[in-house]
């Protein structure tokens, strides 16, 4: 039998790094009486360095770090609600498109015409949203559609939710179409109609298949919200840019923003890998 890969090693390495960082922070901020005497010269040299002076100017003076803290909160708020909206829109569009592909030979008359209309409407939605940059969509929604509104968070979550819905729709549709047609026939043999077959047999299987892809869409959306500053929304990237405009120092705040994005993406990517392993194990 092949040897199972151990996933405890990355966790141990991460724990060791956290301990080292926590110990270093303690030695830097603890009262001098509480730290070893051999570390005092290094600590004094650190506080006298240009690096600390730049750090203090960018983050500590006037509590400028709060721009990044508040921006991070806005980023998560917009991302969370945009993902929910995107999943709702994506499920609706995916069901319409997959239903037409499945039932177009069976339906007749007015019902087929209505389904065909919504099928084409969903096709236009996918073509337009996937064919234009998200920042352009954001600016159109803010400066044109909601020109009289000052609720920038609402505008941002609508823009990113509508954009995400187009990609989620194709992810879910792909999951539905990947289910063997025999599953539909099994549902029919049990006396289920099309709706009940989709609800109780097809959708649960498809959702399990596309769950990792949906989680990756969440990660992508976190990074996409960085363009919200185009409409004046103070999210994470905008918070770092405000600090840069106050201190005329670009390196420290922008590197801090990049590191925060990197840590967030690495953390959620790790969660997605755990989810994928759980799903693979459940299939055995």
Low-confidence stretches: 1-6
Radius of gyration: 25 Å
- Alpha-carbon distance between the termini? 15 Å
Considering the protein shown, what is the CATH homologous superfamily? Answer: MetI-like
Could you tell me the mean pLDDT? 86
What does the main sheet amount to? none
Q: How many strand units?
A: 0
β-sheet strand percentage:
under 5%
* Number of domain modules: 1
Structural class: mainly alpha
- Looking at the structure, the CATH topology is MetI-like fold
Report the principal-axis shape. Answer: elongated
CATH class: Mainly Alpha
Q: Treating each run of at least 4 consecutive H or I residues as one helix, how many helices?
A: 11
**Could you say what the CATH architecture is?**
Orthogonal Bundle
Share of helix, binned: over 70%
**Secondary-structure element sequence?**
HHHHHHHHHHH
What does this structure look like?
It is elongated and about 85 Å long. Helices cover 80% and strands 0% of the residues. The protein has 284 residues and is mainly alpha-helical. It starts with 7 loop residues before the first helix and ends with a helix. It is built from eleven helices and no strands. The longest helix is centred in the first third of the chain and has 39 residues. The chain has a single domain, classed as MetI-like (MetI-like fold, Orthogonal Bundle), CATH 1.10.3720.10. The N terminus is likely disordered.
């Amino acid at each position: 039998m092949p040897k199972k890969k151990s996933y405890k090693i990355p966790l141990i390495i991460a724990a060791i790094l956290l301990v080292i960082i926590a110990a270093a922070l303690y030695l830097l901020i603890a009262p001098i009486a509480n730290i070893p005497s051999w570390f005092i010269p290094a600590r004094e040299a650190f506080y006298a360095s240009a690096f600390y002076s730049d750090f203090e100017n960018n983050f500590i003076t006037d509590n400028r770090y709060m721009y990044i803290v508040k921006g991070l909160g806005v980023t998560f708020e917009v991302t969370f609600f945009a993902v929910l909206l995107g999943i709702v829109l994506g499920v609706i569009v995916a069901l319409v498109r997959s239903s037409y592909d499945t039932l177009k030979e069976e339906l007749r008359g007015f019902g087929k015409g209505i389904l065909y209309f919504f099928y084409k409407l969903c096709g236009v939605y996918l073509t337009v949203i996937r064919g234009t940059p998200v920042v352009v969509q954001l600016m159109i929604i803010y400066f044109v559609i909601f020109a009289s509104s000052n609720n920038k968070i609402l505008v941002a979550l609508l823009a990113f939710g509508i954009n995400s819905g187009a990609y989620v729709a194709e992810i879910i549709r792909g999951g539905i179409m990947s289910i063997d047609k025999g599953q539909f026939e099994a549902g029919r043999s049990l006396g289920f109609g099309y709706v009940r077959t989709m609800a109780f047999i097809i959708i649960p299987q498809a959702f399990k298949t596309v769950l990792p892809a949906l989680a990756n869409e969440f990660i992508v959306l976190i990074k996409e919200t960085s363009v919200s500053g185009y409409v004046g929304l103070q999210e994470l990237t905008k918070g770092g840019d405000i600090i840069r405009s106050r201190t005329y120092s670009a390196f420290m705040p922008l590197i801090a923003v990049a590191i925060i994005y990197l840590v967030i993406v690495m953390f959620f990517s790790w969660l997605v890998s755990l989810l994928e392993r759980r799903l693979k194990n459940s299939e055995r």
